[in-house]
Amino acid sequence: MYQIRMMNCAFFARHGVFDQEEFLGQRFYVDAVLTVDPGEALENDSIEGTVDYGEAFREIEAIVTGKRRFLIEAIALEIAKALCSRFPQIVTADITVRKPNAPVPGVLDYVEVRVVHDAATDG
């Protein structure tokens, strides 16, 4: 096994529970740590047998910039499931979504959630 780490992918989107979050929008940041079964890909230096991280980025972008969601937890799970479905080499997708401007009554850098999805549970 090996890991592909895509860190701090940034997207502008309009997620959140409150109307002003949809109206104003904000940046969201995603980390994707993908545990991959290499098969023969590493020995053969073959992109076809591994995860094309350019394609993985586009999958993440489509989800984050797509339909509005109330929960960043839902975004993280959808990303994890989509990546596992698109790339059968992924054994585990560990997805973190950060929301820097979370509407809380105080000062913080960001709120983040982490979802770890095992591809074997997709059946």
Give a topology summary.
Layout (H helix, E strand, L loop, with lengths): L1 E12 L5 H6 L1 E11 L4 H4 L8 H12 L7 H15 L3 E10 L11 E8 L5
Explain briefly what this protein structure is:
The chain is α+β, with helices and mostly antiparallel strands.
Q: Order of strands across the widest beta sheet?
A: 1-2-3-4
What composes the largest sheet? 4 strands, antiparallel
Mean pLDDT: 91
Order of helices and strands: EHEHHHEE
Structural class: alpha+beta
Global outline:
elongated
Which segments are poorly predicted (pLDDT under 50) over 5 or more consecutive residues? Answer: none
Distance between the termini: 21 Å
Helicity range of the residues? 25-40%
Q: Rg to the nearest angstrom?
A: 16 Å
Strand content: 25-35%
Number of continuous helical runs: 4
Give the total of beta strands. Answer: 4
Overall description:
This protein is 30% helix and 33% strand. By secondary structure, it is an alpha+beta fold. Strands 1-2-3-4 form a 4-stranded antiparallel sheet. Helix 3 (53-64) packs antiparallel against helix 4 (72-86). The longest helix is centred in the middle third of the chain and has 15 residues, at 72-86. The mean pLDDT is 91.
